Amino acid sequence: MKETVLIAGLGLIGGSLALNIKEIENVHVLGYDAKRSTLDYCLMNGIVDNVYDDFAEAVKLADICILAAPVSITVELIHQLNHIPLEKELLVSDVGSVKSQIMEAAESLTSDQITFIGGHPMAGSHKKGIQAAKPYLFENAIYVLSPTKKSTAEQLDRLKALLSPTKCKFLILDPEEHDEMTSVISHFPHLIASSLVHQARNWQSKHPYIPKLAAGGFRDITRIASSNPLMWRDIFFQNREKMSRLLADWIVEMQQLKTLIDSGEKQQIQTYLEQAKDYRDGLDSKKKGAILSYYDIYVDIFDQPGALLKVIGLLAEHDISINNIEILEIREGITGVLRLSFQNKNDQQLSQAILNKNKYETMIEE
Ligand SMILES: NC(=O)C1=CN([C@@H]2O[C@H](COP(=O)(O)OP(=O)(O)OC[C@H]3O[C@@H](n4cnc5c(N)ncnc54)[C@H](O)[C@@H]3O)[C@@H](O)[C@H]2O)C=CC1
Ligand SMILES: O=C(O)C(=O)Cc1ccc(O)cc1
């Protein structure tokens, strides 16, 4: 029998999930979103089979519903579920970056027909909206699942099967643990990235050339500050206790660093940097897999934009999709380096072979 799956919120994450779930035979995918233009786009591009601008109407038809709106809206939608008369069993999940409030709302659901299992794919981008949705967004990424008291092992397996086309790796976590870990590894770094951008902007009044000097390091560390402010406002708000605790620790560490810098203790400064480097290098190791590391190739190029187009064209001819392209420190007419990122090792190695055959100098970091 056909299973009906509703995705509520068809932005970057909901749209990317829909693209994957649509691949499964015998699944009918419905979409709900507050934006009419998003629903029209989804229909026009075959991302879902049918669209609704009324949550209650759509959810009544569904066997499984994935809530993929901003976190505060997801909490509201869970509360709404309590007041929607359902005629069949409904398995509900979500994709929210903070889990505690969502899981609290889910535990307070009174309907016997609804079972909730929390979810969070640990992958995304700084882009937002349906037009940024990609089918391979979650490949090799961790997908956190948080079962509830009511959910059964069979329901967990059913959800995993539905998400299996994403090629993610599942990890079961308790919501409190999840929120603490993501505050350290995702939410707090975002706050620091935004604060670094503010600092640069403040200095720009004294040095108008600051933006022109912004080199690779500043761009790398502040990339996430260009993400969706509405989404991150919700994340900071919902995880504010853990963020505040991390800020307090950070302030103490910054004070210690200030003392170290003021003292001019070269050896201690070097030790501090070496310890950070050792830990960071270990995180990136593909064997450990602690960070979702993309498969990068560095390519030497000589003049842009011609060289850029040629490299991309060569890979496109072989249907290889590039996850990210970055030009590292290139100026016109001077040798530069292109960093191409791929989702998997196969694409990385095939691309290297193609580029080498076409006389490009390439390098893969071990
Ligand atoms: N962007 C990212 O990298 C990641 C985001 N997440 C989580 O995924 C969720 C969605 O984020 P994105 O897809 O990035 O955001 P997005 O802004 O791309 O998409 C959100 C969608 O929700 C819709 N929406 C807003 N209010 C609504 C309402 N009242 N009813 C129905 N639809 C509504 C919007 O129209 C939009 O289509 C958030 O909870 C976020 O925490 C999780 C992992 C990664
Ligand atoms: O853009 C990036 O590097 C991200 O880290 C994306 C991301 C944003 C929010 C999440 O909850 C999970 C992943």
Structure characterization notes:
By secondary structure, this protein is an alpha/beta fold. The chain folds into three domains: 3-173, NAD(P)-binding Rossmann-like Domain (Rossmann fold, 3-Layer(aba) Sandwich), CATH 3.40.50; 177-264, 6-phosphogluconate dehydrogenase C-terminal like domain (6-phosphogluconate dehydrogenase C-terminal fold, Orthogonal Bundle); 295-363, VC0802-like (2-Layer Sandwich). It is 47% helix and 17% strand. The protein has helices at 12-21, 36-44, 55-59, 71-81, 100-107, 153-163, 175-204, 210-213, 216-222, 229-238, 240-263, 266-284, 306-317, 345-357; strands at residues 3-8, 27-32, 50-52, 64-67, 90-94, 114-121, 142-147, 169-172, 295-301, 324-328, 336-342, 362-363. The chain has an eight-stranded mixed sheet with strand order 3-2-1-4-5-6-7-8, sandwiched between helices. α7 (175-204) crosses α11. The longest helix is centred in the middle third of the chain and has 30 residues, at 175-204. The model has no long low-confidence stretch (mean pLDDT 91). Bound molecules: 1,4-dihydronicotinamide adenine dinucleotide (NAI) and 3-(4-hydroxy-phenyl)pyruvic acid. 3-(4-hydroxy-phenyl)pyruvic acid binds next to loops.
